[in-house]
Amino acid sequence: MKRVIKWCLIAGGSLVVFLILALLLAPMFVDLQKYKPEIEKRVSEATGRPFTLGGDLELTLFPWAGVYVSDVRLGNPEGFDRKDFISLKSFEVKVKLIPLISKEVRIRGIRLERPRIVLIRRKDGHTNWEGLGTRPGGAPPPASKRESARAAGSVPPAMPIKSLNIGEIAITEGSALWIDRVKGERKKLSDLTLRLRDVSFERPIHLFLSAVLDGKPLSVEGDVGPVGKEPGKGTIPLNIALKALNQLDLRLNGSIKDPLLRPSFDVSLEVSPFSPRKLMAALGESFPAKTTDPKAFNKVALRVKAAGDRKHVSVSEGLVKLDDSTLTFNLRAREFSKPDVAFDINLDHIDLDRYLPPPGKENPKKAKPRPSEKKKIDYAPLRRLVVNGTIRVGKAKAHGARFHNLYMKVAGRNGLFHVDPLSLKLYSGSLSSHAALDVRKDIPKGKMELKAEGIQVNPLLNDLLEKDFLEGRVKMSVAVSMTGDDPDRIKRTLNGRGDFLFHDGAIKGVDLTSMVQNVKSAFGLAKKGEKVPRTDFSEFHFPFTIRNGVLDTRRTAMRGPLLRVLAAGKADLVRETLNFRVEPKFVATLKGQGDVIPHMGLKVPVLITGTFSSPKFRPDLSGMFGKGLMEEKQGAEKSESLTDKIKKLFKGLPFGR
Question: For all residues of the chain together, what is the average pLDDT?
């Protein structure tokens, strides 16, 4: 019995030695080079591109089964000046054979050395990756029903192996070149290193990537997984850090669940403070926006949590820091075919003027497009949208005007949207508004109601328009409606009413009371150093209606201690023309002004005509002050005419710019 066992062991050992020797010697007797033409032919047919294996094929069977190939090249199609689309110095893979019998894949390593890809877009717009995989003269073979179902994600791929263990997947000294001959751009990614270590189903896969983009470093490092024994099912953890161009530092943590059948995610993203301006400079690009403040967009940071699946996405604890401003937000979206969006946005403070384009020469007016050239706006996406959200702003500045405590609520569905309310505080007063937009039909309709109370007009106009011509507190109510989606039609269909009531104010630059004494001082034409003329009033009431773009006022009145002013007329917003008549009436003596003679009922009418950009003013002074004016002309024959000076005065008003 012992001899039997002994001879069995000797026979078994001899067989093992023989098999090892066979595995070691077999590659020496197999001529792999004769298969190169067939391999090149098959790959060329599959890709539709020339394919060559310039180096030798090498095969090893023990202790690892391995394949090594060098000088691999996949060419470009005709019409491109670069010969190779993809090139590779060498490719090597080593696998253990015996575990394959039990469907266990054990790979020592997969290595690609000096891979290079060149992406080109020609001047005619064609690219060198178009048609990749298409057979010459025809389309790629149609996929089977099972393959189509897998691609759609309805059928999970069958797992042909029990376990997977890859020591390392490595790409070294890789590079990529992007050439865009349409835009004249060229980008280069060099020194690419990618390593995936300990690739398996049961353990996290460590990822490391580093490269140089146009001379600037880029790196990604982190862990992904474990992916589980059934890839595409279960929860896959993520922990990734990205650093780019010595500027961007991004961290992503969280997980992806069931990525093939029912994908969902729950992640947190954090971007450390960086300068968008410096980031664009590192990319070799100029900053896309020109701002009044050259230091705007110099600091941005982001922190957010996001979760979702195919039916909904939610963003919570969102925080954005933009320069000195802090924005917090929450967002929820669902039913993407008919989007239902809710949001809550809070901004502590912001100076919007910093981010506006710097003042400069106005562009020449372009010819208005013909009606046939205007593209029709498709409002179907808005009709499907459901929205509900709020916006709050602590303090803000826009076009010089300052406001605080802004609150706005937006709601809409089925093409009907409301902003109700919109409220804010400004210049010792308050403003509130309600607005609606109706896009249920092809031509949109809108309406708005605006109310203001106790706003100090002078600092507002100084900040907003840089004009100093009116003082007082205003109470305002405006209600208008309009139709259309282009400015001309909106003005033609503008209808509504309004009422402005100013208290305890003054019109600066003109003294109507002094008109009976001194025309020069009355119209702000006095010598330098003299007191600026003004017309004080206790109440200035401006009611108006708008009908089809024409503003009409019949009862505009100003009341002061000595003066009553009545005004009536129209302003055509479509043609931008004016037609007003203003009648001041003195209702008491001018005692204290150097005149004790009663002037009850004295009138000095003024006609305002012309256009918004070039208004014309014609005070009817000839009948009352003809003699005084003749004396002025005799004393200063070369001086500017009174009418021209009045025009200059009124051009200081907003509509006179």
Answer: 79
CB 511 within 8 A of CB 584: no
Q: Tens of pLDDT along 376-391?
A: 888 888 999 999 999 9
CB count within 10 Å of CB 530 equals 11
CB 295 within 8 A of CB 321: no
Predicted local distance difference test score (pLDDT) of residue 22: 43
Whole-model pTM? 0.70
Three-state DSSP at 46 gives: helix
531-535 LR contacts (CB < 8 Å, sep 24+):
532/508, 533/508, 533/509, 534/506, 534/507, 534/508, 534/509, 534/510, 535/506, 535/507, 535/510, 535/511, 535/560, 535/563
DSSP per-residue codes, 428-491: TEEEEEEEEEE-SSSS-EEEEEEEEEEEEHHHHHHHHH----EEEEEEEEEEEEEE-SSHHHHH
* Cα→Cα distances 233→230, 260, 267, 309, 418, Å: 6, 7, 18, 14, 44
Q: What is the pLDDT of residues 8-28, one digit of tens each?
A: 444 444 444 444 444 444 454
Q: Report the DSSP pairing between strands 534-547 and 340-351.
A: unpaired
**Burial class (CB within 10 angstroms; exposed 0-12, middle 13-18, buried 19+) of 50:** middle
The answer, yes or no, to whether the previous bond of 294 is cis (omega within 30 of 0) is: no
pLDDT bracket for residue 76 (50, 70, 90): confident
Q: Is 51 exposed, middle or buried (0-12, 13-18, 19+ CB in 10 A)?
A: buried
Lowest mean pLDDT among 219-228, 485-494, 582-591: 582-591
b (16+ CB within 10 A) / e for 451-462: bbeebbbbbbbe
- Strand, helix or coil for residue 576: coil
Distance separating alpha carbons of residues 344 and 108, to the nearest angstrom: 52
Residue 306: what are its φ and ψ, rounded to 5°? -140, 140
Burial class (CB in 10 A: 0-12, 13-18, 19+), 372: exposed
